[in-house]
């Protein structure tokens, strides 16, 4: 029986290798099978198979090494893709023009609401505040502050989008209705979820799980090193030569994966610090920033649908028409640093 002679897991398949690993006998069972000298036909089929396998040197250690090798490429691909997603999510948050514009609109609106208070000239707020926008109701008791902010962005985006496509001297421009601007702006705002698609993916990840996968991949390589200790000149077959080549390449691959992990976590920490300042409180949940934004995008999508229905009726009033509950806190100070170069269309959209 030339079981695993080449060390190539494809000759057996990962499923069969997993089954074989589960069939591995205990030390006591192994001794009994080796010492059995009776009629082999009187043993059960499983015992007959195991006794035959035990005649192969280091059979189950080979199986464990081969199973690790069979799953290696899949594990590496998953980890590399995960770390790439984290890097892309970090870039999306920092570079999304619309997301930053929305944050600025929230800050301006909060300052208008808080005129005359010690929170009336805020320069920053934490992203957690975004989730509170739907808790602040308008005077009608139905419309929320997020509805107002979304409509403010819609006006701005609709106008800027149309001006790119229409000559300002064109006489037909004056005939473009306000609701046309609104529809164009709404399309831009509803596209934010698409623009932050990697943020949504990153929100579903767990830093501890990813870290454990990397550790497990690195420690699993010891199974290959262990079986290579039994390499002897008198043992025939290509198993050990094949495993030595795999070990060399796998070692280099794991080093690259660890480097990818460090780079990704550094970028996540940087984007968290960019929006939240001190990251010490976020260390227990390093991907929390993505969870906050994902939850906000879910709320935003719902509000955009409602605003779309409202466009045929009345627009929301001014920021001062919203009631602030005793538990509301908008904005939280000294975190997200907004840009000062607001465009003129944003300013003109301010009520």
Descriptive tags:
elongated, 351 residues, 13 helices, mainly alpha, single chain
Question: What do you see in this structure?
Answer:
The chain is an all-alpha fold and 351 residues long. The protein has a domain of 174 residues. 62% of the residues lie in helices and 0% in strands. It contains 13 helices and no strands.
Indicate the topology:
Layout: H1 14-23, H2 27-35, H3 45-53, H4 59-95, H5 97-113, H6 145-165, H7 178-190, H8 192-195, H9 197-203, H10 207-228, H11 239-276, H12 288-310, H13 344-349
Number of strands: 0
Strand content: under 5%
Number of helices: 13
For the residues shown, what is the average pLDDT? 76
State the secondary-structure class: mainly alpha
Oligomer: single chain
| Biggest beta-sheet profile | none
Proportion in helices: 55-70%
Shape type: elongated
N-C termini distance: 83 Å
Low-confidence stretches: 171-176, 324-351
Q: Radius of gyration over alpha carbons?
A: 31 Å
Return the string of H and E elements. HHHHHHHHHHHHH
Protein name: Formin-like protein
InterPro entries: FH2_Formin (IPR015425), FH2_Formin_sf (IPR042201), Formin-like_plant (IPR027643)
GO molecular function: actin filament binding
Domain FH2: 1-326
In short:
By secondary structure, this protein is mostly helical. The chain has helices spanning 14-23, 27-35, 45-53, 59-95, 97-113, 145-165, 178-190, 192-195, 197-203, 207-228, 239-276, 288-310, 344-349.
């Amino acid at each position: 029986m030339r079981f695993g002679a080449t060390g190539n897991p494809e000759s057996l398949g990962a499923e069969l290798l997993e089954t074989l690993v589960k069939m591995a006998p205990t030390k006591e069972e192994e001794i009994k099978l080796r010492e059995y000298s009776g009629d082999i036909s009187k043993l059960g089929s499983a015992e007959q198979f195991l006794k035959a396998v035990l005649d192969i040197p280091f059979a189950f250690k080979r199986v464990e090494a081969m199973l690790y090798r069979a799953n290696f490429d899949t594990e590496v691909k998953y980890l590399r893709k995960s770390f790439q997603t984290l890097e892309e999510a970090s870039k999306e948050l920092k570079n999304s023009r619309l997301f930053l514009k929305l944050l600025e609109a929230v800050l301006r609106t909060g300052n208008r609401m808080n005129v005359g208070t010690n929170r009336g000239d805020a320069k920053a707020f934490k992203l957690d505040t975004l989730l509170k926008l739907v808790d602040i109701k308008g005077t009608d008791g139905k419309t929320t502050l997020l509805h107002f902010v979304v409509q403010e962005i819609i006006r701005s985006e609709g106008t800027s989008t149309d001006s790119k496509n229409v000559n300002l001297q064109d006489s037909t421009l004056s005939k473009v209705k306000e609701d046309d601007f609104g529809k164009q702006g709404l399309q831009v705002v509803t596209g934010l979820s698409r623009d932050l698609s990697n943020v949504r993916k990153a929100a579903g990840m767990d830093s501890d799980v990813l870290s454990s996968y990397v550790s497990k991949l690195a420690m699993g390589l010891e199974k290959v090193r262990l079986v290579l200790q039994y390499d002897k000149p008198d043992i025939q077959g290509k198993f050990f030569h094949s495993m030595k080549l795999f070990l060399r390449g796998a070692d280099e691959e794991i080093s690259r994966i660890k480097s990818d992990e460090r780079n990704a976590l550094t970028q996540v920490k940087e984007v968290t610090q960019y929006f939240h300042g001190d990251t010490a409180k976020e260390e227990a949940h390093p991907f929390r920033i993505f969870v906050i934004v994902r939850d906000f995008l879910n709320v935003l999508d719902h509000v955009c649908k409602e605003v779309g229905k409202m466009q045929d009726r009345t627009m929301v009033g001014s920021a001062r028409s919203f009631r602030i509950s005793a538990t509301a806190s908008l904005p939280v100070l000294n975190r997200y640093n907004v840009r000062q170069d607001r465009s003129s269309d944003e300013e003109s959209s301010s009520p």
